[in-house]
Amino acid sequence: MQTMLTSGAAIAIATMGAGTSLAAARCVRVGVYADNPTQALLSLRRSAGSGITVISAYLTAGKALPASLISAANSDDAQLLVTWEPDDGSDGAKQPSHRLSAVTGGKYDASLRALVAQLKQLRAGAILRPMPEMNTPWHAWSGTVNDNSPNGFVRAWKHVRRVIRSTKGGSRIQMLWAPYAWSTPDDAANAIAKYFPGRSQVDLVGADGYNFGNRGDLTWTDPGTIFSPAYKEIEALADKPFWIAETGSTADGGDKAGWILSLSTLQSTSMPKLSGLVWYDVDDPLGDFRLRGRTVMSAFSDLVEEGCR
Q1: What are phi and psi of 295, to 5 degrees?
Q2: Residue among 69, 78, 71 nearest 45 (CA)
Q3: CB 279 within 8 A of CB 239
Q4: Contact, 48 vs 299, CB < 8 A?
Q5: CA–CA dist 89, 104 (Å, integer)
Q6: What are the residue ranges of helices labelled H in the chain?
Q7: 73 and 80 in contact (C-beta within 8 Å)?
Q8: Using CA atoms, how far apart are residues 206 and 192, in angstroms rounded to an integer?
Q9: What one-character-per-residue DSSP string does 176-243 give?
Q10: Kind of pairing, strands 52-60 and 79-85?
Q11: Are 197 and 177 in contact (CB under 8 A)?
Q12: pLDDT tens-place string over residues 140-186
């Protein structure tokens, strides 16, 4: 999502519980993105139970993760998911000094190696999600803007993976490839498959997508409608564990609690390799996705309880 991709240690917290719907074939981790990690963590433990096992952070390329984040992950024996963003730390695609050619040219190589050195400190391991939502016009690394191209993205991805894998400790880091659930613009030149670097180049796959509700030209949309088509297309490219890396729903025009509960049916109905999902717990200009209110929070707690432990 364009408005939430900021620098530093904005955190998404993934939780795990026990149950049946999500765990029909394998565990599905359930997470929450929040701007204030400490407050969000404490709040989740009070309202949705304990069992937090994955902490996800957004990091501007060239910067280091806060040492406190590494310590917090190790303290909780948690895995860390890092979304890596080669830009200037602000929203917007027009950033000429942060084109994909800069990634391929080695601008961030030293900082990537330094990041691997930090991630090596994690007892539970790490997931790296470089340059997500590349099939939209929102980011400095997007394929149709900033003098980029889908082929340029593939080259940049392969370069990042090569740097990570060639650095001591990098082989333990899983790399998550995650476009937006539908391409913008939606045409052949910007198709999801155009950005795919190859099965051997990814460890995990996924997608982002939101229900903005009845807003402007948009209408209420259920999770299956949002994610199932992307899931089929992406899993055809690489039969790998699938993550809903960012999602959320407003309450504009529908039942937000019911929308959350319907996430628990995805694995058993249409997405058998679904392995994780992260909720976007923010009041955004595009909608209020926060987990607020007894009914909504109860639904989320049920979702967590149906996940993995």
Answers
A1: -65, -45
A2: 78
A3: no
A4: no
A5: 19
A6: 37-48, 67-75, 100-104, 109-119, 150-166, 223-237, 256-262, 266-269, 294-305
A7: yes
A8: 11
A9: EE--BSS-SS-SGGG-GGGG---GGG-SEEEEEEEE--SBTTB----HHHHHHHHHHHHHHH----EE
A10: parallel
A11: yes
A12: 999 999 999 999 999 999 999 999 999 999 999 999 999 999 999 99
Tokens matching residue 266: 């995805």
* DSSP letter, residue 170: G
DSSP 107: T
Judge contact between 185 and 144, C-beta under 8 A: yes
Q: Which pair of structure tokens corresponds to residue 117?
A: 């050195």
State the residue for tokens 């099965």.
Answer: 199
Residue 249 β-bridge partners? 211
Write the pLDDT tens digit of every residue in 5-50: 333 445 555 554 433 444 444 778 877 777 866 556 656 666 765 5
Cβ contacts of residue 232 below 8 Å, gap of 6+? Answer: none
Beta strands 242-249; 204-211: pairing state: parallel
Q: Give the pLDDT score at 165.
A: 98
Phi, psi for residue 92 in degrees, rounded to 5? 110, 140
Q: Tokens 């404490």 sit at which residue?
A: 42
Q: What are phi and psi of 19, to 5 degrees?
A: 175, -155
Q: Please state whether 147 falls in left (phi above 0), alpha (psi between -120 and 50) or beta.
A: left
Q: Collapse the DSSP code of 27 into the 3-class scheme (helix H, G, I; strand E, B; otherwise coil) and give the result.
A: coil
pLDDT at 302 > cutoff 90: no
Cβ–Cβ under 8 Å, residues 22 and 260: no
Q: At residue 171, what are phi and psi to the nearest 5 degrees?
A: -70, -15
Enter the tokens of residue 146.
């900033």
Query: Angle CA(246)–CA(251)–CA(252) in degrees, nearest 5?
Result: 110
